[in-house]
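Q: Convert this sequence to structure tokens.
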Amino acid sequence: MSSRPASNIREFAPAPASTVDDNDLDLLAEILARTRPPAASRAAAADLITVFGGLAGVAAADEAALLCAGLATAAVDDLLRIRALAVAMARAEACRRPVLSSWNALTAYLRADMAHAPREQFRVLYLDRRNILMKDEGRADGTVDHAPVYPREVVRRALEISASALILVHNHPSGDPSPSQADIAMTRQVVDAARLFSLQVHDHVIVGREGTASFRALGLI
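A:
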């Protein structure tokens, strides 16, 4: 898959601010103050926000990136726990009702978990007959612009867990969620493979910092 856009139609999210937001700076400095003096915490917070492009970028950074940025192990652990809690809260809200009737909660969860990921990831949401989320599984991790996807493996897993439908999800680290021709071709392969076993692919959602794109809304499914 590639993040090269084929369409500019998308669900927009607010663009990141061009300067450091004082509220974001204060919040991150308070978190870092557990492991360093207040003045040093504020300076470190400003550096991190600049390096990672905003507070959300800091929150989404992996352990290795945060350690490379100079954070102590304890501070990294704090940030990873806070991020995990935020994602868990968003996921719980998305799972309260059938996903097709709580679409905003679902996309909020996906954006919290994937919008700022530095590498492309492909995952599948497996649903039961009531469209309740059964499993949310990562199927591929890739580079900054590609994650390998194997349609037969996606369908095989659905049959293993007796899923009735699925939603495909992947992120574009470039920030632009517009689907590429490769994304469209791969989706058609999964849809065709699923149809042989009476499995329905409800949607393919692409997540980026700039928002989300729905294949169904775009008429691509």
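The beta strands are 11-12, 121-127, 133-141, 165-171, 200-208, 211-214.
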